[in-house]
Give the backbone structure.
Amino acid sequence: MTARAPDAPARRAAFAFAAAITVLAPLVRELYPLSAPTMFAYPLRQRVVYELRAPDGRRLPAADFALQINNPHDPPVTTLGRRGYGKRSPTSLHTPGVAPSDAAARRHVARLLARRPELAYVDLTRRVIGDVDGRRVGERARARWRVHNPRAREASR
Amino acid sequence: MSPGEPRSRWPLAILTALLLICAWLALAVELRYPGYARGVPVSLLGYLLPPWLLASPALLAACKLGFLGAALLWVLRRALPWSAWAAALSFIALGSLYWENLPWFRHKYVVPALLLIGHALWSHAHLRRASARARAPAWAPTLYLLLIAQFYAQAGLAKLTLVGPSWGDGLSLQLWLEWLGDRERFLTRLLLSDRLYARAAQTLALALELLAPLMLLGRRARLLVGSALLGMHLAIHVTLRIDFLSQMAILAVFTYAPWERFTSPARRRTAPPVAPGPAAAAAATRRTCPLEHGL
C-alpha cells in the first residue's frame, strides 16, 4: 500500500531551497543572504606596517596618508561583474599582504604631504613582517625614509 | 502526530531561541558609514532598491520594527504564516541594508536568515496543524543542519578556491595572530611560538569546515562535528577577539537540541501489511500520516 505524505510539498520546497542555496552561493559568492563566506580567505604571506612621524616626533595616523588597512581579512567580492563591498573604503596604498615598492610608497606620501603645509617633512618607516625561520613570524625588513613636503620647500624659498 | 504520542515544547523553544538571537543581531545593526561612497551591490536587495533608499535610516528602523513585531506574533502563533514570512523577510531586508552600508561583510547575519526561511517553511507547511506543542517533521532538522553545514563547507571551499591548499600552512594564521591577536592569551602565544601548532590548528579548522556536512549523518556525528565547530569559534573568539557569539549560540542550539525526541519519524512509502479491522486501519492511518494531528 503506497501512501502520500501530508507534508510532501513542504519537504520538496525545503530541499529545493537548500539545494538552491548550496548551488547558487559559490556562483555569486557574496550576495546576501547567499554567501560562500570569504572571511579569512586571503592569500596573506607577509604583512607590511607603515608608521609615520611628524618633525616633532608625534605619530601621525596612517589614514591621514592613505596607508591604513581597510579590511584585514575579507577579500572583496569579485563575481557578477562586481568588485568591492557595499560601501567603498577610503583609498589606500596599503593592501594586506602586498608591499608596494619603496619609490611608490615615498611618491604616495609626498603627494599627500603636499596637502599638509604645516609639516615640513615626515619620517616614514616601513616594516615587513613575515616568516623569519620557518617556525615563527617576525620583522624581515625595515626601511626608513624622510619624505620632504614639496609645498613646505616652496614656501621657504 | 497521533493522539497517543507525547507532545513537545522543543520546537517552540528552538524557534524562540532563534528569534531571540535574530533580535539581538537586528538591534545591533547601525548605518555607520554614511560618508563612504557607494560600492557594489552585495545583496539581492541591493539590485532592487536605489542607493538613497538602501542608505535610509528610516527604512532600517521600519525593518527592525517589522522584524520584532512579526517575530512576537510568530512565537505567539498568531497571523501565521504571514507573521513567519514577515519576520524572515524583514530580517533579510535589514541584513541586506547592513551589508549594503558596510565596507566589508558581516557573515554572522547569513545563517540566521537562512534558518528563518527554513522555520517559515515549516510554519507555512503545517499551518493547519499549528500548535505551540507540536512535533517537528522529519525534514526540518535535516534542513536546518544542512543550512548550517553548507555555510561552513562553503567557507572551506572559498579558502581552497581563492588561496589553495597552502591556506592551511600556518603562516597566514601566525600573521593574523601577530597582527590582531590577543597576546595575553596562552593559545595565541602557543600558536605564534611554532608554525607546527599554527599549521595543525589551521588545517584542522579547514578540515572541520569542509567536513561540516557530516553533521547530517546522525546524532553522534552532529554532536561531534557541532562541538568541534563550537570549539573552533571559541578559539577564534579567544585569540582573535572576533565576535561570532550569535553564531556560536545558533550552533549550540541546533547541535544540542534533542531532535530525535521530538521529530516525527520519516514517513514510510510502503506501509507494512495489516490485518483487516477498524483498529488496524486506524493504526495504519497513524503510521502513514504521522503529522495529522501534530504541527
In short: The first strand of chain B starts at residue 37 and ends at 38. Confidence is low (pLDDT under 50) at residues 1-5, 268-295 of chain B. The radius of gyration of chain B is 22 Å.
